[in-house]
């Protein structure tokens, strides 16, 4: 074999300089990313190998993975290959239980896998520079491409270099779309020029190519791999002569007409070729053990043929396996197989792998390629593989099931079709899932199968926002199941769907049944599910005492030793919602920390956005706007993969309000519009009242007071009809002010009456302050508004205090009491300023005759919030984002948002620069 190790580097000085720049930046602490595209054999892999070798020499931790061409997508296959992991190593065994809450979280398991691998990369980079090389992205699954997008965005912040290779992406493919999103430098590796080809050939042969050889070399079109293959084929056939330092071909070789790689393969003896044909069917990489199993020969007896293939340059050793030197070599070997032989060999491979205990997806890969209709073994393996991956990758599971359906000699089994319904639901094909489910029900099924089918239908309807149909399907499921333990959980599922469909009386009844059945059978999950609904129902009617009692109860159940599946209904989230309404923010923080931790450990990725969202809500209520923004952004970063709770409206509304507090109306408009689009999807969503507040404030800023009043009035009337009392309390005073300004005193007085009734019922100081503030607008009494502010001076609710002081200043000015207006307005501005709500501070001061308070700087160390300063200090101590998240009891995504804010405020671009600033200001040890 010609020593072609450097073949891919000839004529690549500029490209090598780009790689060197990436590596030097990485080891200095500010990484980056590079995408190399080019035709097969042009030298992408050799450039990647050179980068890996140089990276190791420079002290980097080098991770190398590659995608492979498979009919069945391997979820995050290339990335797992780089880390040397399997899905089960990262996530553990997948649980079989699902709930209606997670029904809308498409491929949440795959999303959690992506998160864990990001954390692994961060942990490695905290120990030193990392070079991640991912090859052949043209064969990568969508999850890998999304992951690459995230990594390339983060790479410049720390010592992480990312190098990716791919064939040129075809327009319209997932890869083409992903390339547009990658935050990477891009090298399009073209063919070598004629002079470089001659120089390369001369270097490989240690002689000057003669005229006949040069003519042969022109046929390689500047492809380095083909140059090497051509020379090796000529050497193997004795077609080269050397004289006086000039090497030449004896004549034009007709055997090369089909290409030099095909000529290399043609030189193999018959036994070696037969072994390689089976190896090529196995895949781009193969183990000697698998080859031995398929051929029913001892591994040691195969070494002779493998050595021949290695000597010919067709195969190379690859760690504990062998690999085809290039995919073009594998293609050339496959081309020697008669078309009629390929399918039978795939079947032999499938049977051998099944007998050796290979993963179901690997066995199914070959059955899918080789089986013919009527092969029951193939159908069984395809269904088994689909069941293993349906929650992780429903689209891939669906493709497997479609193949299985096509291979079924008669009508597919109901079990197979039920699995297909589940895959269709997970992949978002709801209409097709519903049609298939209904056709199965018409055919008649046994009770257990029918029950499972109704449950899948219930989930599908829930995702589609068809709550009443979801209730009906879950109710049918409840009636059909015979397992008394599962009946309690079914009652909890029913209660949740009834709650979402706004049938609160029925929800209360079903939830009570779930609690009782859970207690009777000892099923904590059923008791927690029912108790969670009862907690929310108590909140909705302002029965805070009952809500807190249920919150205490369901959280206490979490600590019982037998609470195995008690996490399924995420009781900590429900308790946090209750404590958010009763201003118990410290208890809320503990519940969020505990719930997020359990969700992460149990693989419940769908639940994590809910915890970040309720943390954002609590931060909004206490006026920690930067923390609220970070938590809301973290939530939205998760929602591409999982939104089991429907919290997108909440978070976009919070971000809109924060933007208005800071005077950014364009950003506020964006978030208001996006939140409205989420509402239009028809799914159950938290946050309608927060969206109405954001929209009203935006309309008022834009000078449209009538639109602001309409936005709040519509939601107030909707909530009055439901009723959902706590949500109204938040915007009641604002609605009263707008109504009074518009002269609609009847509306204002009716709202005040309801606010006062809620305050009396709950005994809540916050509710009392909100009612008093609303009443002050009706009477025009500045003193009453000031008294409302006094009620919450000791409360953590700074925005409510600032609002009351602002409104008191407004009323005092209207009454001609300028001194009081100045005093109250100055205090309001000071409170707004401490929260970073500069726009509100400036607005309240504008008509006053006082000196404005000092606003927090926008840039520099003084611009950092307390949380951001803490994060910066921990960065300086070398902690990864995941480690910081663990120490601060927040999510890694929230940390990322704080890090991004710190970069912006400190005007830096990497963790190294952040560390320097932190040390310069004494923020770290």
Describe, in plain words, how this protein is organized in 3D.
By secondary structure, the chain is mostly helical. The protein has six domains: 7-94 and 102-189, P-loop containing nucleotide triphosphate hydrolases (Rossmann fold); 194-263; 338-386 and 393-402; 387-392 and 403-586, Serine Threonine Protein Phosphatase 5, Tetratricopeptide repeat, CATH 1.25.40; 604-703; 861-920, Arc Repressor Mutant, subunit A, CATH 1.10.10.10. 66% of the residues lie in helices and 6% in strands. The strands form three sheets. Strands 2-3-4-1-5 form a five-stranded parallel beta sheet, sandwiched between helices. The chain has a three-stranded mixed beta sheet with strand order 6-8-7. Strand 7 and strand 8 form a beta hairpin. Helix 1 runs parallel beside helix 2. The chain is globular, with a radius of gyration of 33 Å. The two termini are 57 Å apart. The model is unreliable at 1-5 (pLDDT under 50).
């Amino acid at each position: 074999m010609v020593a072609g190790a450097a073949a891919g580097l000839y004529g690549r000085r500029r490209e090598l300089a780009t790689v060197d720049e990436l590596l030097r930046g990485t080891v200095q602490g500010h990484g980056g990313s590079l995408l190399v595209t080019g035709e097969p054999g042009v030298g992408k892999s050799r450039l990647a190998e050179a980068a890996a070798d140089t990276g190791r020499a420079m002290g980097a931790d080098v991770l190398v993975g590659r995608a492979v061409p498979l009919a069945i997508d391997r979820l995050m296959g290339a990335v797992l290959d780089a880390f040397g992991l399997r899905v089960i190593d990262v996530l553990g065994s997948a649980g079989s239980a699902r709930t209606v809450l997670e029904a809308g979280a498409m491929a949440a398991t795959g999303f959690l896998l992506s998160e864990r691998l990001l954390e692994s990369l961060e942990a490695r980079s905290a120990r030193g520079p990392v070079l991640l090389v991912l090859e052949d992205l043209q064969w990568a699954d969508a999850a890998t491409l999304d992951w690459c997008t995230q990594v390339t965005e983060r790479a410049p912040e720390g010592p992480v270099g990312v190098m990716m290779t791919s064939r040129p992406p075809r327009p319209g493919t997932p890869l083409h779309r992903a390339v547009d999103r990658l935050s990477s430098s891009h090298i399009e590796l073209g063919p070598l020029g004629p002079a470089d080809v001659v120089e390369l050939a001369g270097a490989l042969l240690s002689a000057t190519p003669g005229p006949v050889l040069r003519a042969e070399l022109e046929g390689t079109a500047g492809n380095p791999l083909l140059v090497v293959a051509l020379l090796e084929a000529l050497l193997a056939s004795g077609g080269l002569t050397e004289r006086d330092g000039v090497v030449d071909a004896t004549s034009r070789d007709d055997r090369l007409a089909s290409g030099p790689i095909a000529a290399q393969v043609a030189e193999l003896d018959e036994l070696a070729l037969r072994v390689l044909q089976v190896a090529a069917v196995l895949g781009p990489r193969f183990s000697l053990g698998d080859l031995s199993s398929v051929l029913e020969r001892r591994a040691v007896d195969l070494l002779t043929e493998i050595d021949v293939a290695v000597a010919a340059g067709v195969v190379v050793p690859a760690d504990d396996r062998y690999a085809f030197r290039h995919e073009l070599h594998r293609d050339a070997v496959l081309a020697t197989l008669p078309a009629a032989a390929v399918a039978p060999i795939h079947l032999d491979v499938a049977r051998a792998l099944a007998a050796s205990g290979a993963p179901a997806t690997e066995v199914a890969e070959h059955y899918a390629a080789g089986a013919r209709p009527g092969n029951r073994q193939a159908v069984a393996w395809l269904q088994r593989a689909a069941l293993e991956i349906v929650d992780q990758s429903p689209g891939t599971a669906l493709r497997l099931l479609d193949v299985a359906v096509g291979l079924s000699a008669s009508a597919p089994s109901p079990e197979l079709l039920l699995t297909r319904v589940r895959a269709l639901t997970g992949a978002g094909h709801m209409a097709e899932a519903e049609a298939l489910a209904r056709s199965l029900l018409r055919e008649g099924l046994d009770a257990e199968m029918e029950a499972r089918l109704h449950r899948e239908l219930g989930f599908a309807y829930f995702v589609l926002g068809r709550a009443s149909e979801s209730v009906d399907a879950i109710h049918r499921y409840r009636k059909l199941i015979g397992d008394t333990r599962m009946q309690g959980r079914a009652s909890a599922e029913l209660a949740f769907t009834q709650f979402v469909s706004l049938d609160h009386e029925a929800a209360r009844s079903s939830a009570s049944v779930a609690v009782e059945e859970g207690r009777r059978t000892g099923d904590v999950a059923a008791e927690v599910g029912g108790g969670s609904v009862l907690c929310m129902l108590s909140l909705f009617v302002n029965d805070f005492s009952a809500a807190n009692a249920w919150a205490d109860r369901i959280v206490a159940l979490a600590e019982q030793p037998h609470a195995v599946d008690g996490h399924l209904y995420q009781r900590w989230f429900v308790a946090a919602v209750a404590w958010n309404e009763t201003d118990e923010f410290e208890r809320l923080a503990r519940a969020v920390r505990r719930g997020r931790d359990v969700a992460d450990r149990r693989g419940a990725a769908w639940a994590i956005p809910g915890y970040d969202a309720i943390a954002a809500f609590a931060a909004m209520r206490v006026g920690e706007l930067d923390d609220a923004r970070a938590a809301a952004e973290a939530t939205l970063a998760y929602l591409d993969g999982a939104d089991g709770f429907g919290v997108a409206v909440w978070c976009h509304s919070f971000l809109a309000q924060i933007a208005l507090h800071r005077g950014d109306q364009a950003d506020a408009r964006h978030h208001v519009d996006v939140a409205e689009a989420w509402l239009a999807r028809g799914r159950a969503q938290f946050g309608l009242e927060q969206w109405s507040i954001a929209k009203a404030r935006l309309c008022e800023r834009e000078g449209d007071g009538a639109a602001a009043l309409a936005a709040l009035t519509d939601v107030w009337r909707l909530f009055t009809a439901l009723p959902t009392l706590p949500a109204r309390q938040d915007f009641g005073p604002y609605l009263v002010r707008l109504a009074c300004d518009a002269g609609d005193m009847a509306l204002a007085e009716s709202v005040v009456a309801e606010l006062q009734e809620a305050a009396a019922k709950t005994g809540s100081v916050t509710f009392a302050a909100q009612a008093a503030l609303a009443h002050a607008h009706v009477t025009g009494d500045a003193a009453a508004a000031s008294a409302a502010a006094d009620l919450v001076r000791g409360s953590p609710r700074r925005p409510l205090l600032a609002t009351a002081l602002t409104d008191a200043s407004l009323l005092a000015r209207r009454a001609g009491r300028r001194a009081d207006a100045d005093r109250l307005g100055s205090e309001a501005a000071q409170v707004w300023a401490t929260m970073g709500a500069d726009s509100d501070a400036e607005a309240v001061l504008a008509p006053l005759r006082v000196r404005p308070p000092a606003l927090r700087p926008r840039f520099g160390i003084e611009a950092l919030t307390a949380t951001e300063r803490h994060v910066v200090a921990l960065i300086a101590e070398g902690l990864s984002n995941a480690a910081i998240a663990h120490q601060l009891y927040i999510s890694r995504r929230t940390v990322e948002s704080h890090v991004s804010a710190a970069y912006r405020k400190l005007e830096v671009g990497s963790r190294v620069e952040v560390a320097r600033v932190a040390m310069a200001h004494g923020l770290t040890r």
